[in-house]
Amino acid sequence: MTHTPVAAALPVLDMAMLDRDEASAAAFRAELRTATHEVGFFYLVGHGIPDEVTARAFATAEEFFALPTEDKQAVEMRRSPHFRGYTRTGGELTRGRVDWREQIDIGAERDRVDDPDAPAYMRLEGPNPWPAAQPGLRGVFTDWERRCSVVARRLMRSWALALGSPADVFDDTFGDRPSTLIKLVRYPGREERGQGVGAHNDPGVLTLLMIEPGKGGLQVEHDGEWIDAPAVPGAFVVNIGELLEFATDGYLKATMHRVVSPPAGETRLSIPFFFNPALDSTVPRIDLPPELAAQARGVTQDPDNVISGTFGDNLLKARLRAHPDVAALHHADLVARGS
Ligand SMILES: O=C(O)CCC(=O)C(=O)O
Ligand SMILES: [Fe+2]
Question: Transmembrane segments in this chain: where (predicted)?
């Protein structure tokens, strides 16, 4: 793969087409299927989230990162067995290499599970550490989660129909306990523009990413090149994760992407929302119509990253790897047995 970005734009899809007549809705679904078969990434406009809501989310994120270090440390992920909270710059790894970004992880707000017989992955459920120094943050991102979940569920139904399945084929996978995750991320500028976040596929189903207006840095792999995917005002960058590739035997494509650090003196904020299955569910394998099955490429085989079975097992493995300090502090029993 070369490392020179090429100027080729990702497709732009307009979700408002779903609200017009059936012909427009069908055209949207066909574009969705093509974009995620061929590229795996697209911009989504017409999603119904007003610009002022997005602006408030970024303003809130900016305020969080501007808090004194002690206030951010008060909600450090190292204190959370559920992998929630603040990670300082340099505290996260992708494929064993340090990512140059600071972030707070906000998951679905639930009670912790105290049943000793529950599967290990139930340790991922629990409350979020909300920053006492910024009481408004909780409401802003509880609202963001609700709005993004509506968009995500509509997209899942559109894919289901576009793949020749009943609209509700994925509904049980998410049920009323999807494993949603919001990250607020800040990439500091660097003299030598290195790894903001290293090249990776998203491990889940679907990601809705909002990038701070005016900022570049995201690059998407396509046909052996890196394509730049700068912020488009008001648009989500949408991509699918490895589980949707798995569900479609590789007909849909989980695509590698990375973020290059901004130049020295600049910063970049982003807010990815990950829409993932309930922890105890398995993702169905879709029965594709023959003309689509003929174009299915099979699932990318990576012996270090085997996708199968229960979602919670996959997620727990990914979290233990990305945050070895949290794993050692709270889950030494799992690390010892190599989960
Ligand atoms: O910050 C971004 O633009 C992308 C982040 C990302 O790919 C991730 O957190 O999975
Ligand atoms: Fe990602």
Answer: none
Residue 197: CB within 6 Å of ligand 1? Answer: yes
Q: Please tell me if the CB atom of residue 101 comes closer than 6 angstroms to any atom of ligand 1.
A: no
d(CA 94, CA 200): 7
Task: Give the C-alpha separation, 10 to 40, whole Å.
Answer: 9
Instruction: From the CA of 187, give the closest atom in ligand 1.
Output: 1
- Whether 32 is in the pocket of ligand 1, judged by its Cβ within 6 Å, is no
Domain ranges of the chain: 2-336
Does residue 152 line the site of ligand 1, with CB under 6 A?
no
The answer, yes or no, to whether residue 244 has pLDDT greater than 90, is yes
- What gap in Å lies between CA 203 and CA 312, rounded to an integer? 11
pLDDT value of residue 305: 64
* Tokens coding 124: 């991922």
103, 261, 270, 319: residue to mutate for ligand 1 pocket, most atoms within 8 A of CB: 270
Mean pLDDT of the chain: 92
Query: What pLDDT sits at residue 192?
Result: 78
Q: Taking Cα atoms as reference points, which of 73, 92, 91 lies closest to residue 131?
A: 73
Region of poorest pLDDT, from 34-43, 51-60, 264-273, 305-314? 305-314
Whole-structure pTM value: 0.94
CA of 272 to the centre of ligand 1 (A): 6
pLDDT level of residue 100 (50, 70, 90 thresholds): confident
CATH code for the structural domain at 2-336: 2.60.120.330
pLDDT digits (tens, 9 = 90+) for 19-76: 999 999 999 999 999 999 999 999 999 999 999 999 999 999 999 999 999 999 999 9
Q: What residue has token string 């007909």?
A: 251
In the predicted structure, residue 337 carries a pLDDT above the cut 70 = no
Going by CA atoms, what residue is nearest to atom 5 of ligand 1? 272
Q: What are the helix (H) ranges across 135-255? A: 137-162, 171-174, 242-247
In the block, which residue shows the tokens 């734009």? 9
